[in-house]
Task: inverse folding
């Protein structure tokens, strides 16, 4: 199946700093990418839908100025958590779509101290 | 808005036995897609099986099969000949299109496989 990578796999940062997470589709072009957040022992919650070359569509309750999403190419989307706070600590998962199926990245664990 | 409900937070099964995971959903759409995803301890989401709502035939993938009841808005997953590697979180999910639209996930169910 198609492969989606995420980098970094885990990151620890200080409160107030910004963190960038990359999501890459390695062997296919993804017109649409999705960003999910998963808190411990909970389900995946969609944060935003990202289409190449256009602004991301954010779900209700997700601060677009805090979670900056850029989908600059058909194989790369980035999520930047700006001015991170401890409550932003979570597991962030991206997925990339080939219009038939979503392929998930391995996730990024963010810990904000 | 579409919702997906998994009412059983945990289940266990003996190795080689069969287990059924339940899922119900709510939608006003007539055409949509349903999925079962597996999330092992590595947390990598893995697609187990998908069902197109317009297809009456239940999807099957090796030891995994679904019982799709469109009128009842029910979508259960049957795992036959359970293996230790089946132990994971299982999420039922809904989408209005096959891959290009967002997934709405249920809360998940933890499956334990006992040797």
Result:
């Amino acid at each position: 199946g198609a492969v989606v990578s995420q980098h970094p796999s885990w990151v620890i940062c200080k409160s107030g700093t910004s963190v960038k997470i990359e999501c890459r589709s390695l062997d296919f072009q993804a017109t649409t990418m999705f960003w999910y957040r998963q808190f411990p022992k909970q389900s995946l919650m969609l944060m935003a839908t990202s289409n190449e070359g256009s602004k991301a569509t954010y779900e209700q309750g997700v601060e677009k100025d805090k979670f900056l999403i850029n989908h600059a190419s058909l194989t790369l989307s980035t999520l930047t958590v700006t001015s991170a706070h401890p409550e932003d600590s979570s597991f962030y998962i991206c997925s990339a779509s080939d219009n038939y199926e979503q392929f998930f990245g391995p996730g990024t664990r963010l810990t904000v101290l | 808005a579409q919702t997906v409900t998994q009412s059983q937070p945990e289940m266990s099964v003996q190795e080689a036995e069969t287990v059924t995971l339940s899922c119900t959903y709510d939608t006003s759409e007539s055409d949509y897609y349903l999925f079962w995803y597996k999330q092992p301890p590595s947390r990598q989401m893995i697609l187990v099986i998908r069902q197109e709502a317009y297809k009456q035939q239940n999807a099957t993938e090796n030891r995994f099969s679904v019982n799709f009841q469109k009128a009842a808005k029910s979508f259960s997953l049957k795992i036959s000949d359970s293996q230790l590697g089946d132990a994971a979180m299982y999420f039922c999910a809904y989408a209005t299109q096959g891959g290009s639209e967002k997934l709405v996930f249920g809360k998940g169910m933890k499956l334990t496989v006992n040797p």
Summary: Chain A has a mean pLDDT of 94. The radius of gyration of chain A is 13 Å.
